[in-house]
């Protein structure tokens, strides 16, 4: 890996476009290096993972809305597939629908460093572009390896959230780069597409603050849709604002740390394999990633606590990120509102820890129902939970050593009789260094569990066989899943829109 310094440049400064970060990323995308076997295998795992969470979300309202919008853009040739339904649709709208299905339940893969990310959000737009272009499995895997690589590298180097910029600002460029690899585009075309994708996908973090709405699911699918459109325009010869990150009026100068700040972004050297996906990890529980380990900790401490009505207080000592994003450091009263949206509750570690402690489990549906959130004993326990930032957990969260990096915390539970229970956890059980690391069998089990009652057993079998043979596929439509009409009929009725 090569560390690239990235800073603002004055317009009058000599700064050849070959030195722009977007151009360096484009060169990585255009590098014909082969994909290593470990990367290929993990890409297949994540294709299965995305299908699993899409099955679990397909009948939810935001996913239904996105699917119906895509259905307004059906095509008879050169199209892409939409999860759950037959037919082909315009690639950018297929990416929109499928990206929303993947993201809706906050239940797929994650990478956390200087910034947050869900790298699996790259799969819907890159797959849709591959289907539209008639590409095969080998090209798809190459494109996805790039998408993951660029997103992880940007997340390692550039923090967005401290400036209240949403993390999908790293997704637009990574998806555009991945599509560039997929289509074997030249460096300059990919460079322009990356610039356009970044320019059109920067937005504030208000989508993840306060009362969180369904836009949280749409935000990454919008970025994927913009990436496809950016690539299309660049292929037609259109350019982008440049230098997009380093310009005097660019992203660093006005949206991030300002013209005096220098970032360091690591990128693979020419000929270096793309292995960044191997640093990412998926979720066992349908909640924000920083809650994963703490859910496992609550389940572990449940027997020691016993009667949760005897809890006087619970203090979770954790990282800066966890405290300020999903903890009491956010100062969001909505995180304690039993009538808050599901999206808000899955960003409330006090709620999540309370329910996991009471139930000994976390379920993607049962744990979020209004009835569950409004249980009086739960509300009382929930309001006794707080978080504090601890420097050591913050240091471990930001560590670049994978054996030290941690996303957990320490729980101090004080009972009404004065007894103090104390335990901690560094990583989730499903993490590669956790108690029960996810491998292919666990991904398949997650898929079958979430697909039960939604996807027929025969269709499950067909899809899994196709996914495990991704590299050899000539028809990438085989990676779609079609649902029976009686299942689709269970989707909610939504108002008509404009399209």
From TrEMBL:
Residue intervals of the MmgE/PrpD C-terminal domain: 285-471
Record EC number: 4.2.1.79
Catalyzed reactions: (2S,3S)-2-methylcitrate = 2-methyl-cis-aconitate + H2O
GO MF terms, alphabetically ordered: 2-methylcitrate dehydratase activity
Domain MmgE/PrpD N-terminal: 19-263
Xref: Pfam families: MmgE_PrpD_C (PF19305), MmgE_PrpD_N (PF03972)
Parts forming coiled coils: none
Recorded family membership: Belongs to the PrpD family.
Quaternary data: Monomer.
Identification of the protein by name: 2-methylcitrate dehydratase
Species this protein is from: Corynebacterium halotolerans YIM 70093 = DSM 44683
Lineage, broadest ranks: Bacteria, Bacillati, Actinomycetota, Actinomycetes, Mycobacteriales
């Amino acid at each position: 890996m090569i560390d690239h310094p990235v800073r603002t440049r004055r317009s009058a400064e000599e700064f050849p476009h070959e030195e722009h970060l977007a151009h360096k990323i484009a060169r990585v995308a255009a590098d014909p290096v082969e994909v290593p076997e470990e990367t290929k295998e993990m890409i297949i795992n994540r294709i299965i993972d995305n299908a699993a969470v899409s099955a679990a979300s397909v009948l939810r309202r935001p996913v239904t809305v996105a699917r119906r919008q895509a259905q307004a853009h059906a095509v008879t040739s050169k199209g892409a597939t939409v999860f759950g339904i037959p037919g082909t649709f315009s690639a950018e709208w297929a990416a929109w629908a499928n990206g929303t299905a993947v993201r809706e339940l906050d239940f797929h893969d994650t990478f956390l460093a200087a910034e947050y990310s869900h790298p699996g959000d790259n799969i819907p737009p890159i797959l849709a572009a591959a289907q539209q272009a008639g590409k095969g499995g080998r090209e798809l895997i190459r494109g996805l390896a790039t998408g993951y690589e660029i997103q992880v590298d940007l997340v390692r180097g550039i923090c967005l959230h401290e400036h209240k910029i949403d993390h999908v600002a790293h997704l637009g460029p990574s998806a555009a780069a991945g599509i560039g690899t997929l289509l074997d585009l030249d460096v300059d075309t990919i460079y322009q597409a990356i610039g356009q994708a970044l320019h059109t996908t920067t937005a504030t973090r208000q989508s993840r603050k306060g009362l969180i709405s369904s836009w949280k699911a749409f935000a990454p699918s919008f970025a994927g849709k913009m990436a496809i459109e950016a690539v299309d325009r660049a292929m037609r010869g259109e350019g982008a604002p440049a230098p997009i990150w380093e310009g005097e009026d660019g992203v660093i100068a006005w949206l991030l740390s300002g013209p005096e700040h220098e970032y360091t972004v690591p990128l693979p050297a020419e000929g270096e394999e793309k292995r960044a996906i191997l640093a990412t990890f998926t979720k066992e529980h349908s909640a924000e990633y920083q809650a994963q380990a703490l859910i496992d900790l609550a389940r572990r401490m449940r027997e020691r606590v016993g009667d949760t009505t005897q809890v006087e207080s619970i203090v979770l000592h954790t990282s800066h990120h966890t405290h300020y994003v999903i903890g009491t450091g956010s100062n969001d009263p909505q995180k304690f509102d039993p009538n808050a949206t599901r999206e808000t509750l899955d960003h409330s570690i006090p709620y999540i820890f309370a329910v996991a402690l009471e139930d000994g489990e976390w379920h993607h549906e049962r744990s979020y129902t209004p009835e569950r959130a409004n249980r009086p004993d739960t509300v009382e326990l929930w309001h006794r939970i707080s978080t504090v930032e601890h420097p050591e957990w913050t240091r471990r969260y930001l560590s670049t050593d994978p054996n030290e990096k941690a996303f957990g915390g320490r729980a101090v539970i004080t009972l009404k009789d004065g007894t103090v229970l104390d335990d901690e956890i560094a990583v989730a059980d499903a993490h590669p260094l956790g108690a029960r690391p996810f491998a292919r069998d666990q991904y398949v089990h997650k898929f079958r569990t979430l697909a039960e009652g939604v996807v027929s057993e025969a269709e499950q079998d067909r899809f899994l066989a196709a996914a495990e043979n991704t590299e050899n596929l000539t028809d990438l439509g085989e990676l779609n899943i079609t649902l029976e009409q009686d299942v689709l009929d269970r989707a909610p009725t939504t108002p008509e829109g404009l399209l």
